Amino acid sequence: MPPAKKKPRSYDAAKIRAAVTAQFGHLTEAVRELTPEQLGRGSGLGDWTVADLAAHLAWIADSLAAGLARPPAAVPELAAVEWPFATASLAGKIAEAAKETLEGAPLPELFERVGARMEKALAANPGSRVLDLWVGDMTLADFLVTRTVELVVHTDDLNRAAGTDVPIERQALAACTRLLADALALKAPGGSVEVRIPPFAVVQCIEGPRHTRGTPPNVVETDPLTWVRLATGRTDWASALADAQVRASGERADLAALLPVMS
Hints:
- This protein is of the alpha+beta class and 263 residues long.
- It has two domains: 13-168, Up-down Bundle (Four Helix Bundle (Hemerythrin (Met), subunit A)), CATH 1.20.120.450; 174-258, Nonspecific Lipid-transfer Protein, Chain A, CATH 3.30.1050.
- 49% of the residues lie in helices and 8% in strands.
- It contains nine helices and six strands.
- The protein has helices at 13-32, 36-40, 50-69, 91-102, 107-123, 140-162, 170-187, 224-231, 237-242; strands spanning 130-131, 138-139, 193-197, 201-205, 219-222, 246-249.
- The chain has a four-stranded mixed beta sheet.
- A hairpin with a 6-residue loop joins strand 1 and strand 2 (138-139).
- The two termini are 35 Å apart.
């Protein structure tokens, strides 16, 4: 008999909403303090400057509000765990939309405006609905989980590129970590390797002998922020191992060919 299909992870919708709003608030405060020199620096993301990265962050809030303003879709096409694999083809379209968002207002004013628009739209939609989105129609609850990934990943990008120290909400980091770990398990299903990201996630992946008791023979362990960087291509597997940011034991405990999960 084939193994039962794993039930999708559930998230506390109220906590995810609060984390998304709070994380964007941290970014709004940080943007007020960015200097022209910081804004002109490279972001580490292709040819984007820090100003381009900030525009993308503003677009994240603006696009959520825009999605809530459109008529709802009928049924979801995409689950949160599938979202990381559906974004690559939209990178150019999203970048252009972010640049358009930046035009017409100084960054601090822009962040205040789109943040207020996002909060108002969320307050008007306290329940569940299906959003009509470029990436594929999603429930609001699932889409908000994906917003934690965008906000956590790009807050970390901003901190490293601009030398800022924007805090990352614990609940946002937890949801981001779990979603990207579940995406790895979806990409490489199996039970031969246990990936531990304390204190937020443990998943099994990669085909092979399934471990059922005692200490697993193949284990990968890392911290949440290192995992987020690995899963999104900010750090490569070999470097993380060399810097002791990842501990891997067992002949199957090599994730190099599976990373990044999302690019």
